[in-house]
Amino acid sequence: MTFKQEHIMVEVAACLSVIHDGEGARDLSIFCQEGEDSIFLQKIEEIHAFAGGEQQAVVERMRFLASGEEFTNLADIHPAWLVEALSKESPRIIGIILRYLPSAQVRYIIEHLPRRIKQNLPQLIDSFAVPAPILKIIRKRFERRFISSAIPRGTGEFRFENIACLGGRSLQVLFKDIGLHELAMALKGIDRRSLSIIFNRLSVEEARGLQQRIRSIVDVHPALLREAKYTVLEVSLSEATPDDLLFEIGLIAFAKSLSIDDAAIFSMIRQKIEPSRSYSLRRYIDQHAPSNFADIVAMRKEIILRRVEILSKSGEINEAAVGGLLFPPPLPSATEEAAGLLYNPKSSPYNWHEKDSVI
Questions:
Q1: What's the rounded Cα separation, in Å, for the pair 109 and 118?
Q2: Cα-flanking dihedrals φ and ψ of residue 144, to 5°?
Q3: Is the domain of 138 the same as that of 239?
Q4: 135 plus 219 within the same structural domain
Q5: 12, 107, 285, 345: least buried by Cβ within 10 Å?
Q6: Do 204 and 306 fall into the same domain?
Q7: Residue 152 belongs to a domain
Q8: Is 148 inside a domain boundary?
Q9: 183 and 129 in a common domain
Q10: Dist CA 313 CA 326 (whole Å)
């Protein structure tokens, strides 16, 4: 059973619980398997939000889940992009589109639509009276606004471009993890006193996580450690929370792993993260991709692939984009070649001495 199928089964169970017990459905979470209770409670809240107490709407939602007609290629689009697109449609079209979206997105959209549109939305049950041919036309027209992230995987190997297949939640996890790794590389070799100042500004859990990541940084090329310091210097210190800071560092580090030939990756992931983050990533790519050197890019991509593999094995990234694919083994030869290039100014365009004077 896939990750998506498991969530559908939990949502169907939540629908049945709401139909039978109404507001008391939450109490049934004690019968869920370990790890599913939080998902069950989340689905209960989403069902109450979009159904508004209409039992028939919940029944239709359950039938709809069983039909498998949900917008599979829109499930990973950040709902803020969907709100932007739907705001240009009529209330009746919006009501029809909401029928085909996952309940979590429906809840977000209803909460963030302009009040003038929200007040004119039809009852959810009304959208089920629209003839099937009309529904098909509306669906296809709306889907064309968003780029599909389907990538052929004939080799059975997870490659860097497969990152574009990750869902929005997994991309958030990955970017924060990349940010933590980049910060750890930047702090590698820093004296204990300076580190303690940084740790004291974090929670105990965050400080412990950063300390462990710093200790895990071994056999990393000095060029990457140096590049990581520049990455941290680019980030605005006004970032509100440690999570925001790590996310921003992760965006810059990811942009530094791309070459000008990797533009398609951004086009496929840009709508999976919130618009403000997407615009920042676009700016960082425009700034770094044209000047990123192939040897640095190769080493950065290797690090990111290893992080995706680790996150996949730990369950933090758990979806079809990763499941069943093999990760390529590390390529030490590439690092050795890069080492020769970086320390030999005659064989590389990378001016080591020029950057050496900054930090």
A1: 10
A2: -65, -15
A3: no
A4: no
A5: 345
A6: yes
A7: no
A8: no
A9: no
A10: 12
Give the pLDDT of residue 148: 62
For 305, phi then psi, to 5°, come to -60, -40
Q: Which of 357, 228, 248 is nearest to 299 (CA)?
A: 228
326 SS3 class = strand
Pair (166, 117) in one structural domain: no
Question: SS3 for 157?
Answer: strand
Q: Which domain holds residue 97?
A: 3-143
User: Is 82 inside any structural domain?
Assistant: yes
**Total-model pTM:** 0.70
Tokens of 343: 């320390």
Structural contact between residues 101 and 49, judged by C-beta atoms closer than 8 angstroms: no
pLDDT attached to residue 319: 61
Q: How far is CA 22 from CA 25, 45, 54, 58, in A?
A: 6, 11, 10, 11
Strand partners, 184: none
* Least confident range of 21-30, 135-144, 156-165: 21-30
Considering the domain architecture, whether residues 310 and 169 belong to the same structural domain is answered as yes
Tokens of 7: 């969530």
Alpha helices in 1-36 (DSSP H): 3-21
User: For residue 27, what pLDDT is reported?
Assistant: 78
Domains held by the chain: number: 2
**pLDDT tens profile 44-103:** 777 776 666 566 666 666 665 655 544 556 777 899 999 999 988 888 888 888 877 877
What tokens were used for 348? 């590389």
